[in-house]
Design a protein that fits this description.
Rossmann fold, alpha/beta, 5-stranded mixed sheet, 8 helices, 24% helix, binds FE2/S2 (inorganic) cluster, Ubiquitin-like (UB roll), 6-stranded parallel sheet, 13 strands
Length: 266
C-alpha cells in the first residue's frame, strides 16, 4: 500500500489498516459487525489506487440497524469494476430489503465462499469477533486456502477474558441493592458471590454491575464480544441474538438472561 493511498483513507480508520499484500491475486475482504471498520480502510485504499485486482466484499450483520458503512461500501465498490459483494443478515428486520440491503439470511461461513465461487488462491483479510475469525480461518484452511494467505485483524473484540483477574473492582462484590429472593441463582464464582436473578435486570451484565462484579464490555448489544465470559454451568437465552455466537462454553453477558441456575467465570 502506498503512502498516497493511506492519505486518502478516512482519518478515523487510518490507524487500523493492516498491510495489504501487493500483487495481482484477488482480494477477499471479510467482516462481521464492527469488524468492518479496518476492512473498510483496506477497501478505501484499493479504491484510491484504482486497483484492477478482483475484489470480494463479504459482510455479516444482524440487520440494517447494525450494518456499519453500508452506503459507503456500496459507493466504493461501484468505483471498482472487478468487485463483488455479499451481505448476510442473521436476523433481518421486516423493513430490510432482500437484494437491496442484504443478499441472504444467515451467517458468514465457508459455505458462502463456496456458493459465491470465491477463488481459494486469493488473499483473505478477516475481521470480526474472535470466534468468528478463528472459525473462519480454520474453515477456509480446510477448504484449501493457504494459511499464509489468511490475514486476521483484531478490532474491538478479543478472546474470552477472565475479567475477575483482568479488572479491579473498586468495592468488594456484594448482592445488588434490590436483591431478589427467588429466581434463578447466579453464581459469580471468581467473586465468591451467589445472588438471585430479578426482573429489574435486562442482562447478566446489568446484574454483575449491580453487584460490583468486575466485568468488561463495549457495545452492550452482542456485537463486539468484549463481554465474552466462561459459562461454567447452566444455560442462557439471548435478547437480542448476538451477531456471532460466542465460542463454545462461553456466553455474552451483555445480551443474555439465565434459564435456571447458572455459574459464571466472573
Ligand atoms: S458483545 Fe459487546 S459488550 Fe457484549
Amino acid at each position: 500500500m502506498t503512502i498516497e493511498c493511506l492519505a486518502q483513507v478516512p482519518h478515523r480508520v487510518a490507524a487500523a489498516i493492516p498491510l495489504l499484500r501487493q500483487g495481482e491475486r484477488p482480494v477477499v475482504l471479510v467482516s462481521a459487525g464492527i469488524g468492518a471498520t479496518p476492512i473498510l480502510a483496506m477497501l478505501h485504499a484499493l479504491a484510491a489506487e484504482q486497483t484492477r485486482r478482483e475484489i470480494w466484499w463479504i459482510h455479516g450483520a444482524r440487520n440494517s440497524s447494525e450494518h456499519p458503512f453500508a452506503a459507503e461500501v456500496r459507493e466504493l465498490l461501484k468505483t471498482l469494476p472487478g468487485s463483488r459483494s455479499h451481505i448476510r443478515y442473521s436476523a433481518p428486520k421486516p423493513a430490510d430489503r432482500p437484494t437491496v440491503d442484504f443478499d441472504r439470511v444467515g451467517r458468514v461461513g465457508v459455505h458462502v465462499f463456496e456458493e459465491m465461487g470465491v477463488p481459494p488462491d486469493a488473499d483473505f483479510y478477516i475481521c470480526g469477533p474472535a470466534a468468528f475469525m478463528s472459525g473462519l480461518v480454520d474453515g477456509l484452511a480446510g477448504w484449501g486456502v493457504a494459511r499464509d494467505r489468511l490475514h486476521t485483524e483484531n478490532f474491538g473484540s478479543g478472546q474470552s477474558m477472565t475479567p475477575g483477574i483482568a479488572a479491579v473492582s473498586r468495592r468488594p462484590s456484594h448482592p445488588p441493592g434490590e436483591a431478589a429472593e427467588v429466581g434463578p441463582l447466579i453464581s459469580f464464582t471468581r467473586s465468591n458471590l451467589a445472588v438471585h436473578w430479578g426482573s429489574a435486570f435486562h442482562s447478566l451484565l446489568e446484574l454483575a454491575e449491580a453487584c460490583d462484579v468486575p466485568v468488561r464490555w463495549s457495545c452492550r448489544t452482542g456485537v463486539c464480544h468484549n463481554c465474552e465470559t466462561g459459562l461454567i454451568s447452566g444455560s442462557v437465552i439471548y435478547r437480542p441474538d448476538p451477531v456471532e455466537p460466542p465460542a463454545e462454553g462461553n456466553l455474552l453477558i451483555c445480551c443474555s438472561q439465565p434459564q435456571g441456575d447458572i455459574a459464571l467465570d466472573l
